[in-house]
Write a structure and sequence with these properties.
The relative contact order is 0.14. It contains four helices and 14 strands. The protein is an alpha/beta fold. The chain is about 20% helix and about 30% strand. Strands 6-7-8-9-10-11-14-12 form an eight-stranded mixed β-sheet, covered by helices on one side. Strands 5-4-3-2-1-13 form a six-stranded mixed β-sheet, with no helix packed on it. It is globular and about 45 Å long.
Length: about 260
């Protein structure tokens, strides 16, 4: 009798385990089906200003005032949960224009914001050790499953220490238009070679927004001309969505975004 009871007990336990496993498996499938797809949407707002949307967060980088090279852009007055500022210069540091009361970060360091780790990495904003335009902050974070690096207005070569901090980004946003405070096309190419990113979005170059007499940037075509061998495409919009599975196996690729002046 004892053996029979044990058998029944073991059989019952096995049955419950099977039922439980089946129920949990079905529940996991439901939960997986309800889990939002990982992706980040990048919207170009002009110059080095971008809005990143993904993982329930809206992160705005480098809002500007309309003047000089940004004269013809619309002010980036968009709602955001977090604003990242690369420098206090007016073409990338006009956080006072943003509606609402988002958190603003403008110093290098490591920050925890709403479940995200944001890392600001200092790099010179000019070619004379920061003595002219001071320090630029490059921003690094992961959103929607994508490792993002926004170099802001970097002008100095990337050191070994900075490269260790920056890692290998899935997506890098890099200035390419030159001037005295950001990479020219050749310097941008060298930075890309150092970082070996998967996707490159050029920033900080001359467009139809420029005041002809007050903008010393070169157009993006000058950068593209020396980037032969790197796959490139010109988008027809100022938005792109990137999922982890979209990242190229052979990297990098260049994506040139189109600003809507209409």
């Amino acid at each position: 009798m004892i053996k029979r009871r044990q058998l029944l007990r073991y059989t019952g336990a096995a049955l419950l385990t099977t039922i439980g496993t089946t129920w949990l498996s079905g529940r996991n499938q439901i939960l997986q089906a309800q889990t939002p797809e990982e992706k980040v949407t990048i919207e170009w707002l002009g110059h080095t200003s971008f809005l990143f949307t993904g993982g329930g967060k809206r992160i705005l980088v480098n809002p500007y005032r309309s003047m000089g090279c940004t004269a013809g852009y619309k002010l980036p007055e968009v709602n955001a949960d977090l604003v990242l500022i690369s420098s206090q210069l007016l073409d990338e540091g006009a956080a006072d224009l943003i509606p609402g009361n988002p958190q603003v970060i403008y110093e290098p360091g490591v920050f925890q914001v709403g479940g995200l780790q944001i890392e600001g990495i200092a790099i010179d904003h000019d070619r004379v050790g920061g003595r002219r335009f001071g320090r630029n902050v490059a921003w690094k974070w992961k959103q929607g499953g994508i490792n993002i690096l926004h170099l802001g207005g970097a002008a100095a070569p990337i050191t070994i220490e900075q490269k260790i901090l920056m890692g290998r980004p899935d997506l890098v946003l890099i200035p390419v238009g030159g001037s005295s405070k950001a990479y020219n096309p050749q310097e941008a190419k060298e930075a890309i070679q150092a970082l070996n990113p998967k996707v490159v979005i050029p920033t900080h170059y001359r467009t139809a927004a420029a005041d002809e007499e007050a903008c010393d940037l070169t157009p993006v075509d000058d950068f593209l001309a020396i980037s032969e061998g790197i796959p490139m495409s010109r988008l027809t919009t100022n938005k792109i969505a990137i999922r982890p599975q979209d990242l190229p196996e052979v990297s990098p690729v260049i994506r040139v975004m189109k600003y809507n002046f209409g």
